[in-house]
Amino acid sequence: MLAVDALSKKFGQTPVLNNVTFTLPAGQVLAVLGRSGCGKTTLLKILAGLETTDAGDVRIDKQSVLTVPPERRQVVYLSQEPLLFPHLTVFENVAFGLRIRKLDNATIERQVNELLADLELSDQAKKQPNQLSGGQRQRVSFGRALIIKPRLLLLDEPFGNLDAQTRAVMQALFVRVVSQYAMTALFVTHDTREALTVGTCFGYLDQGVLTAYESVRDFVADPRTGVRSELAFWESVQLTSRTID
Ligand SMILES: Nc1ncnc2c1ncn2[C@@H]1O[C@H](COP(=O)(O)OP(=O)(O)OP(=O)(O)O)[C@@H](O)[C@H]1O
């Protein structure tokens, strides 16, 4: 369980996060929708330990983590651009987190092969990152994160660089794998449809102020999320095509 309490952050005199408070139960995916510059990346970086906070607290499983260095938080931050070792194969990229934990070869072989199969990457295992498509690289990046079973996965518009079709495939794969591995995740995006697809609970970040919704119904009802205007648009298209018929 993640508990974020009254988090505030300024850069110089400019407030970027203002009293951000929410909880995220284990095994849930919080989708946070927000326009460019609303503070999404800053929030994720604070949770990952890559940025400091001016006020507030972050607790994971009831333990405050603000003084815990990033490498000991068991939190993985994934951005739009997957970070892979260019000289290692797909298999070794995914295996890396287990090798540094000095697991035996047979265990590594089994766990990595299982995960590659779950990510539909078995036939890419021997390739290097520069021989993969963007969607495949992003899947390897997921694999590197999931293999170490982090307590919290942070995703910063991870599919932002992908074309619409690949993006839809990746969203479906994300939903399946995250539920299979019972991951707790915070997924930030500026795409309403993506938020609704990947999230099990929902938030909206606007100029550093986070609204956490009680239900998907409340999220959809907030005009800022754009769902109502999109529905109105499709209704108007339907009406127009009926007139044409
Ligand atoms: N290190 C920094 N120093 C000064 N200002 C910063 C710094 N990092 C971010 N900011 C400012 O804080 C605000 C929020 O930035 P942040 O990167 O969190 O936005 P974002 O919501 O992730 O935006 P985008 O979707 O465009 O990436 C922006 O106005 C940005 O210019």
TrEMBL record:
Protein name as it appears in the record: ABC transporter ATP-binding protein
InterPro entries found in the cross-reference section: AAA+_ATPase (IPR003593), ABC_SmlMolc_Importer (IPR050093), ABC_transporter-like_ATP-bd (IPR003439), ABC_transporter-like_CS (IPR017871), ABC_transpr_FbpC (IPR015853), P-loop_NTPase (IPR027417)
Domain of life: Bacteria
Coiled coil: none
The keyword Amino-acid biosynthesis is assigned to this record: no
Cellular component GO terms, alphabetical: membrane
Gene3D superfamilies: P-loop containing nucleotide triphosphate hydrolases (3.40.50.300)
Segments forming domain ABC transporter: 2-232
A Pfam entry, by short name: ABC_tran
Any Gene Ontology biological process: quaternary ammonium group transport
Keywords: ATP-binding, Cell membrane, Ion transport, Iron, Iron transport, Membrane, Nucleotide-binding, Transport
Single GO molecular function: ABC-type ferric iron transporter activity
